[in-house]
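Quick start: read one record
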Amino acid sequence: MIREHFEEIAQHAFDALPKDFTDRVENVAIVVEDWPSDDALGRVHADRHSLLGLYQGIPLTKRGQWYGMSAVSPDKITLYQKNIEAVCGNDEEELKLRIMEVLFHELGHYFGMDEAQVRSAMHGFM
């Protein structure tokens, strides 16, 4: 699938997430890459073909009073297109649902949730 079409599906997936959830997201770049880099893999100890997404930044719960006192680069959520496509094939509805799941998961980390909290929250949503 061409990148632009995948990005359109990702935008629709983000827009389908709960509004009270997405309205609280600030200064987060959502990007699409084909595969995880070696650096990304080293951060989460995953293999190149299983990682679907990654949050990089300072979770809201870890930000002190100093945060934002000077210019701050955006946090980043990366969606790994080739891995997500490998799981979903060409079924666009399945792609949208999987991207929603990955975005929800990574945004959970942005909000400061650990893996168990993210899974619990996802269970209530998905």
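Residues 3-125 form a domain with the Zincin-like fold (CATH 3.30.2010.20).
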